[in-house]
Amino acid sequence: MKIRVGTWTRIGLVLLGAVAVPSLAAWGQAFPGPLNNLTAGGLVPLPPPPPPGAWGEVIFANERWIVVQNSQGQQFPIAADSINQFLVRWPTILGELSPKSLVEATGDDLGSMSLSTTHIDVYEGSDQTLVQPTYKSLLPFNRVVTTIDPTFNRMMNGFDIASQNTLYGWAYPINPGENGIPGQFYAVGNVLGINPVRIGVPGDNVVRIFPDNAGNMSISQVTRGTPTFAQSGDSVFLTSTDRNAKTLVLSQLVLYKKIPFKEFSPAP
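Above: the chain's sequence. Below: its structure in token form.
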């Protein structure tokens, strides 16, 4: 299959200008929230949201280029040197983990240094520099617990449930329909056991990781990548920031593989 980069570029950039990349000057609510969120009126300025991403399928790749097609059949060229961060997700299983593996998980805070989640990521070897061992409480959408802690206040003052919900309606927006502020927990650490998954975190602490109530928990090994990892039929998630005469410019490209990392053989 011969790819004429100039042709792809002309086609891709015309389509891109119409549908693929929002205006970088557009500002919006940083986090989803109820319609009566007063921050939308400018009382408390919020940071701009990250650029939205898009899914696609690889239809061509070599060491210098990747061509991606979306669900409408539109095709976009991406030069290797226009990708700021290239990550690859490989399916794996708990049996492949070792004491040297680093596990990253975010999920519902179950208390007692435990969480439940539907997915964990695994890092091996030099790719472990992508994360750092840690653990911390979070609010929805990966927000850290603030000075005003609604969980503690609600526990100590049961009568203020309405006021706490109102507080988070304007200061720290949450999704419509959420009843209260569900706690979240984030942890990265080395594997101590797999039944349940237990990881060691700073301070000689141990975090236990459980699947959701239905027993679902997928696992991916995350590695750095290059276009040589891409093959026709692979799924990709793109976060674009700009375009130029040749290519899309991406802050991040995540490639999803269908086989484990150890089974991958790049094309000659």
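The radius of gyration is 22 Å.
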